[in-house]
Amino acid sequence: MSETVEFAKMNGLGNQILVVDMRGRKDKVTPEAAIALAADPLTRFDQIMAIHDPKVNGTDAYIDIVNCDGTRAQACGNGTRCVVQALASETGRKSFTFQTIAGILNAVEHEDGTISVDMGQPVFEWNRIPLSEEFHDTSRIELQIGPIDNPVLHSPAVMSMGNPHAIFWVDRDPMSFDLDRFGPLLENHPMFPEKANITLAQVTSPTSMTTRTWERGAGLTLACGSAACSAAVSGARTGRTGRKVEVTVASSPNRGKLVIEWRPDNHVVMTGPAEWEWAGTLNPETGSFTRSPEAGAEAR
Ligand SMILES: N[C@@H](CCC[C@H](N)C(=O)O)C(=O)O
Fold first, then answer.
1. For residue 112, is it left (φ>0), alpha (ψ between -120 and 50) or beta?
2. Pairing of the two strands 257-262 and 103-109
3. Cβ(18)–Cβ(8) under 8 Å?
4. Which one of 136, 214, 225, 290 has the fewest beta carbons within 10 angstroms of its own beta carbon?
5. Distance between CA atoms of residues 63 and 22, nearest Å
6. pLDDT, tens digit, 9 for 90 and up, residues 65-80
7. What is the pLDDT of residue 1?
8. How many Å is the Cα radius of gyration of the chain?
9. Which residues carry out catalysis (predicted)?
10. What number is the ipTM of this complex?
11. Ligand 1 centre from 298 Cα, in Å?
12. 78 lines ligand 1 (CB under 6 A)
C-alpha cells in the first residue's frame, strides 16, 4: 500500500479540482483512485492536478492531469490556475513554469490574486486535433446533431488547445440547450478519435462571449478554461470578436468570468481566479482520504 500524500480541494470558477502533491515520488495517481475520489460527495472533482517533480530543466513541476473518469488530459486551464495559487502560497513565488503532456506552460499570479496562464498555441490541423476525417478549414466543419433538415447544433469550429475542442456557435443563452443530452453524443462522435470537449458559445459583443461546456471524461462541469480559450480563438478566427475577450462561463457560480487574449505571437493567455477550499491527505493508489482537522473535519 502506497503512503499518503497531501492534497487541496480547490476550484476554478466552480470547476472542481483536487491539487495532489506527488513531489518526491515515482508513482502516479491511479485511475482507480481517481474514480473512487470522484464517487465520494466530499471529494467529487472534475480534474486532479497531480504535481510531480520536474522532468526537464527550467520547469518547476510536471503536472499530470486526470479526469474524474480516470482518463488523462493534456490541458486544464482552471486546474492550472489552482496549481499556481497552491504553489504561490507555499513558496511566496509569483511565476511558474510547468510541463504537461502537451508541452511547457508559463503562469503568473498577479497582485489582485488573479492568475494568468499562457495556454500555448492553438492547433488547427485536422490530423493534430485530431479528427478522423480530413478538413482543410477547421474553423467550420461539417458535423451536426438533431433533425437532418433542422439541426439543433451544427458546423463547429474545431481545434486543439493541447486537448481537443469543438465549439458550436449559438444565438441564444447556452444554458437553454440540452447539453446533457447532446454532449455525450458529440464527445464520442466518430469524428473525434480521441473524443472532444464540446462547447456552446454565444457572442454577446465584439469583446465578450458566453460559454458552457460538456467536458471529455468529466461531463457537464461548471467551467472549462481550455474551452473558453478555444471559444475565444474561434471567435477571433471567424471575425465574430476581437482577439481579447471577456468570457462569461454561463454554468459557473454567479456566471464567473475569464479574460482570454490570443496574442499576436499566437499564444493564448487566460486570466481568472482560483479558490482554495480545504486540505487533506489521500492514498494515490486507492483514493482513500482524510480531511485535515484544521480545515473542518466535522464534515466527515
Ligand atoms: N476543465 C479543464 C479541461 C479538462 C480536461 C478535459 N476534460 C479533457 O479531457 O480534455 C479546463 O479548465 O481546461
1. alpha
2. unpaired
3. yes
4. 136
5. 9
6. 999 999 999 999 999 9
7. 52
8. 19
9. 76, 76 (proton donor), 224 (proton acceptor)
10. 0.98
11. 31
12. yes
Q: Is 225 annotated as a binding residue?
A: yes
Catalytic residue among 68, 76, 82, 229: 76
Residue whose grid cell is 486551464: 77
What 3-state DSSP class applies to 236?
helix
Task: Write the CB contacts of 275 (distance below 8 Å, at least 6 apart in sequence).
Answer: 10, 11, 12
| CB-side neighbour CA atoms (13 Å) of 114 | 12
What's the pLDDT tens digit per position in 24-57? 999 999 999 999 999 999 999 999 999 999 999 9
Domains of the chain are 5-118+275-294 (3.10.310.10), 126-266 (3.10.310.10)
Q: Are strands 244-249 and 208-215 parallel, antiparallel or unpaired?
A: parallel
Please tell me whether 32 is known to bind a ligand: no
Annotated catalytic residue 82: no
Q: Does 77 carry a binding-site annotation?
A: yes
The predicted-structure confidence for 13-27, as pLDDT tens digits, reads as follows 999 999 999 999 999
pTM of the model: 0.96
Q: Is 76 a catalytic residue?
A: yes
